[in-house]
Amino acid sequence: MMKDRPTQRSGGGIVSRSGQRSGPRDVDADNLPELMRGWRRRWASGVAVATARAADGSLRGITLTAVMPVSLDPPYLAFALALEGEFLGIVRGADACCVHIVDRDQEFLSERFAGRAPLPDGIFTGVPYEMRGGLPVLAGVSAWAMGSVERIDATGDHALVILQVTAAGIGQDTDDPLLSYEGRYRGIEAS
């Protein structure tokens, strides 16, 4: 049997490191926030990293799992950020950012921007990227889209950021995206 590793708290709630499946739970209305954390973990999603340039010129980023295309013409993306999180303030001040879809071989990069591995410094030492349109674009990603922040709507403990896409790129298709399910990274199992 696997020995449980420490559980960590991230912007997305509790991250299970045990490798064990969680069982069913009955949760009443008094425990609805915990139920929603479990609900969110059960939603299999891709993993993305958002990057921006802070007001002081430093480069910043955060790992995301709550990202969705909103419109193709004109192109818009949306993503959720914790209201109390530092990156929301950076995005508000920068008015622009870049969202990257990462591949499974970029798990360590995702961990760095999630704060579960050494955080990138203000010049992204050790993080391969290039500057485009004043924003850092990570190298080797599956896809990226950058643009201006159209609006930020606070709802509950998160804010929905609407990004009007002004430039985008598609990388090599590896058929191996990095996915998140039950607080752990996963991949696609082809049959």
Overall description:
The protein is mainly beta and 191 residues long. 15% of the residues lie in helices and 42% in strands. It is built from three helices and 14 strands. A hairpin with a 5-residue loop joins strand 4 and strand 5 (59-64). The longest helix has 11 residues, at 32-42. Mean pLDDT is 86; it is low at 1-19.
Q: Which characteristics define this entry?
A:
191 residues, 3-stranded antiparallel sheet, 3 helices
Number of helices: 3
Distance between the termini: 28 Å
Series of H and E elements: EEHEEEEEHEHEEEEEE
Helix content: 10-25%
Write out the strand line-up for the largest beta sheet, numbering strands in chain order.
Answer: 5-4-8-11-12-7-6
- Ranges where pLDDT stays below 50 over 5 or more residues in a row are 1-19
Tertiary shape: globular
- Largest sheet, strands/sense/barrel: 7 strands, antiparallel
Computed CA radius of gyration, to the nearest angstrom: 17 Å
- What is the percentage of strand-forming residues? 35-45%
Instruction: Classify the secondary structure makeup into a structural class.
Output: mainly beta
* Average pLDDT taken over every residue: 86
Number of strand segments:
14
List the helices and strands and how they pair.
Layout: E1 8-10, E2 13-15, H1 32-42, E3 45-46, E4 48-53, E5 59-64, E6 67-72, E7 75-82, H2 86-94, E8 96-101, H3 107-114, E9 129-132, E10 135-138, E11 143-155, E12 158-170, E13 179-181, E14 184-186
Antiparallel strand pairs: 1-2, 3-13, 4-5, 4-8, 6-7, 7-12, 8-11, 9-10, 11-12, 13-14
